Amino acid sequence: MNVTTRADLTAWLDRLAERLTLIAPTAVEDQLLYQPVDGSSEITFDFVKTDLPVKEYFLPATHALLSIERGKEGIRLEEPTLEEERVIFGLRPCDARAIRVLDALFLEEEPVDPYYAERREKTTLVGLACQEMGDECFCNSLGLELDDPSDVDLMLTEITGREAPEGGYAVRVVTEKGKAILSGLMLEEVAGSPPKLAFRGQTPILEAEAWPEHFDDAYWARLADRCLSCRVCTYVCPTCRCFDVRDYETQSGDFERLRAWDSCMAEGYRRIAGGHNPRPTKAERLRNRFYCKFCYYPRDFGPVACVGCGRCIAKCPVNVDIVEILEDVATLERV
Ligand code: SF4
Ligand code: SF4
């Protein structure tokens, strides 16, 4: 395997930050977030997972699609320029898999989303293998490994012991994009392979075809009694991707067209012209979140739209726990 030391890795990251945008896990007050950094000294290397995923770098919470200005020469439409080349460092395998889940909708289906496609094209993903599973993690139930390289361009696994007496990382090149940014990183070939890390037990997850049998179960109404419709679970989820497009008048009297995150947990999300709402109750909305992830998305686009990161468990104010729900659903009788 190819190994680099921590000192060589940080020197390489410092040089990367000088020539392009480097985004990495960074402590911001009491949160750990992926943020642009000026150098390796701002990066947190030892962590379980960040508080928020990297979704916002591909599908920003708000994004101005265009502005409409009224001037002396008439009306002018302007599309903001998009991003510079960038590297996201320190992606956990679950967050990298979530990007592939988003690709299935935004890149692999017609019409391709041009904003998402440009951001993906200009981004290189550097993974950092997990050292342990967090309390709420269940990625192993969704087929992931703690050092899964499938969805990144370069994969790093921290190693200690004989192969790296002062601490270091095994480096795997996964794609040409990864190879292209590797120049300047000191590597040494040593015998052996990165250690395999231990997993906890599995959470049962029904196949997409089995979910319709439980659609009318009273379970969903009982569960919804607890839900506050606060939408936090969808905003922190790396695979939730619903958005709305709205036009605003700015203070100067011009107009801006914004694309902004939306949430299927919101009462008005499905309301249509005339005021009809096909999903009027909280139980229907909560049920839809699970059907979207485990039944509709895999059926329509391929991957399951959950990567087992556990953020929705950690952040829900009333302890709606997706692992408990998956276990419950697996034991429900057919309705
Ligand atoms: S975070 Fe919890 S309370 Fe808020 S909408 Fe999601 S399930 Fe409901
Ligand atoms: S549903 Fe929950 S556990 Fe699954 S990817 Fe979204 S936040 Fe993570």
Annotate the secondary structure layout.
Blueprint (H helix, E strand, L loop, with lengths): L1 E4 H14 L1 E8 L2 E7 L24 E10 L2 E5 L7 E6 L1 H14 L7 H8 L1 E6 L25 E6 L8 E6 L2 H6 L6 E2 L29 H6 L7 H4 L7 E7 L5 E7 L20 H20 L9 H5 L6 H10 L4
Parallel strand pairs: 2-6, 6-7, 7-8
Antiparallel strand pairs: 1-9, 1-10, 2-3, 4-5, 4-12, 8-9, 11-12
The structure holds iron/sulfur cluster (2 copies).
The site of one iron/sulfur cluster has 12 residues, from helix 6.
Question: Could you characterize what this model shows?
Answer:
The protein is of the alpha+beta class. The protein has one domain (2-194, 203-334). 26% of the residues lie in helices and 22% in strands. It contains nine helices and twelve strands. Strands 3-2-6-7-8-9-1-10 form an eight-stranded mixed beta sheet. It has a four-stranded antiparallel beta sheet with strand order 5-4-12-11, with no helix packed on it. The model has no long low-confidence stretch (mean pLDDT 93). It binds iron/sulfur cluster (SF4) (2 copies).
Brief overview:
With 335 residues, the protein is of the alpha+beta class.
Features of this protein?
4-stranded antiparallel sheet, 335 residues, binds iron/sulfur cluster, 8-stranded mixed sheet, 22% strand, 26% helix, alpha+beta, single chain
| Gyration radius, rounded | 22 Å
Q: Report strand %.
A: 15-25%
The separation of the N and C termini measures 53 Å
Number of DSSP E strands: 12
Which term fits the overall shape? globular
Task: Give the helix tally.
Answer: 9
Could you say which structural class the secondary elements and strand pairing correspond to? alpha+beta
> Taking all residues together, what is the mean pLDDT?
93
Number of domains: 1
Strand arrangement across the biggest beta sheet: 3-2-6-7-8-9-1-10
- Tell me about the biggest sheet? 8 strands, mixed
Distinct small-molecule ligands in the complex: iron/sulfur cluster
Low-confidence stretches: none
Order of helices and strands: EHEEEEEHHEEEHEHHEEHHH
Q: Could you estimate the helical fraction of the residues in percent?
A: 25-40%
